[in-house]
Predict the 3D structure of the following.
Amino acid sequence: MKGGFSMHVHLDGTTPIYIQIAEWLQHEIIADRLQTDAKVYSQYQLAELFNINPATAGKGLTILLEEQLLYKKRGLGMFVATDAKERILLKRRNEILTKMAQEIVLEAKRLLVSDEELLVLIRKTQEGLE
Amino acid sequence: MNIIQCEELSKSFGRNALQRVTCTIDAEKIIGIIGRNGAGKSTLLNIFAGYLKPTTGSCKVFNENPFNNIHTAANMIFIDDQLSFSDYLSLEDILKMGADFYPNWQNELAYRMLEYAGIDLTAKHQQLSKGQLATFNLVYGLVSRCALTILDEPMNGMDEVIRTDFYRAILKEYLAFPRTFLITSHHLQEMESILEEIILIDEGSIIAHAPLDEFKEQLISLSGPSDALAELLSETEVYAQKIMAGMTSAIIDASNLFISEEILRAKGITISSLTASEVCKYLTSKKGSDIDAIFD
């Protein structure tokens, strides 16, 4: 128990843990820490790492398996599929960015920010990051 | 494979403590038993352990009637704050007895955990502080490695640091040696991440038994302008509702929501999820009851 280190995925207590695990794994793939054909953590390793029930960790892995971002080798475990990274990036661009854009536009409306002002703000943010 | 099966189980002590409880508990899962004070959690666990006889209905543990059953006693351990040992024995002697009785006993692990918790093995059980007592009892329960491990409020009296450590200890022990854990606690939030399932008991009945995520997703919170929400809320059961300055937030059953998130968002209504302990609170509080109402 000493030095019992566990990572925290417990962001807010409301997002289901298995979804947070699935997102963390996708993040590892995007960051190249899990590359094509690399062996992925088992549900027991994830349980230990994140201090969660192994069944919950298993559900997180299942999400990636169903999206064919991982593949199974019988008796050996799960591995990262070819193009997994590209497909995650594409999906994030389509789903997450669209949703975030909707939220920004709605919030701007509520705050009475004009379209021009919003575009200027985005441009400025981009410049700030470059 | 299931380890416990009960059907139409009732227990009455003059008043009804349990009413027609039917449930099946699978082997090798960590299950949280949640409920308000006096809901019937301990009564149910005592029946599983074979310490109490049901008034009516049946209960099978390892396919046998657990009451006064040596087979149950050898494969089950029940830890609560009533656990008592002889006043003449040191903790070391108590561990020795455990090693003699339980076939999977891990004596070395017991020593390591107690040393970590700073508990002196030469002490007597009744000399321990409340927190130390709870820690010792929990260690005793963990190292016995019984197929059915029942922990009734195991963390009562422990400080937060040691509680966090020992939830992790439960998980690690489970990974090393899978078994069924039934754990009750008033601090669901502290233990929910290690749970696979939750059983919610209210007024002597099981009102929910589900995987933790499904349990959490059954209720949602809607908030937005009161007039935009009024129609929607008139058509569905509302578990709780707060209105302030023209804004309403309400808790409803997720399966009663038929409108997409996009449409709601366009009306200024946001959907948010609840924590497991919030879901417990709304499912077990009397409809419309609210502490605020007392002060009106």
